[in-house]
Input
Amino acid sequence: MPWVVSGADLGQNVLELGPGPGLTTDLLRLKLERLTAIEVDPGLAASLRSRLSGSNVEVIAGDATTMPFADGQFSGAVSLTMLHHVPSPELQDQLLREVWRVIAPGGVFVGSDSIPSLFMRLIHIGDTLVPVAPGYIWRAARGRRISGVGGGKELWRISVSRTPASSGLR
Output
């Protein structure tokens, strides 16, 4: 995770998309004033909410393609190796539209995901796997200030700033 968020000023009110059991949440919350995590699986959300009760993390059970948050509510958002669990490219588009909506102008979205491979297919047998190529995120971020793109054989990373004129996907 440090590789993904390095150099990104997420601000102090950050949204984490799809934290699952909260492995990355545990690391993020130590660096932020306030972290809100939205998790589609009610069981995982309840477990994470219980475990982090009394901390600087609010856990919402909900669908990130239709978030219950106000426009511009967050200073930044992170998606750490979860986009491939969104079941279709159309829903991935909707999720990113929602991200652009809920981060404030000047806010930053930082994302990473796995690169499609045989290994990824094998570990997702019986699970959702809709790979997200870094080029897709690049195109989805069109009209935004992209401050970092990187990757290797296993992962890609992108950091995108929302400018006042870049409220949605085109």
